[in-house]
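Ticket #4471: structure output looks truncated?

Reporter: J.K.
Steps to reproduce: submitted the chain below (174 residues) through the standard prediction queue, then opened the result file.
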Amino acid sequence: MTQEEIQDLIKFVAKSGVNEVEIERKDFKITIKSPGIGNKRGKNIASEAPQAVHVAMPAGMPMPVQMSAPVAAPAAAAPAAAPAAAEPAPAADANLLTIKSPMIGTFYRKPSPDKDNFVEVGSAVKTGDTVCTIEAMKLFNEIESEVSGRIVKILVDDNSPVEYDQPLFLVEPA
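Returned output as attached by the reporter:
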């Protein structure tokens, strides 16, 4: 089984709502478990992506790389949206920080089609402010800023696919 086939299987398990799938062939065995479905819009589901749990293969077979989705640690106090990473932007002004996508999904600037955008260029943001929503497997995750400052540039178009760790916003620190 190739890495791409394992990724496709993980996506299938996530979309189907099945809690566990186990496939056994003569040369290997793979088990994929999903913690469950049922979150509502606005909840953090980063920790609920299915993960490849166990792959067993004979000694002569090459071992595939584990293809588990990134998992955010659950917050101890109150549930919060998956944090966006804030790092200096490599190609931009050295003073700017980057808010990056913590997951793969579809980027939305608004909480719903009939609402205003979370932020605009020039908007002031504080740590913990929601800056966008990312939809992953029909669940919407509010992405919060880990920095305080002013939005200088929005790097992704509304309703566009985003990758894990893709830059979303440039922020001038306050």
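Triage note (M.O.): checked the attachment and the full token line is present. The first strand starts at residue 20 and ends at 24.
Status: closed, working as intended.
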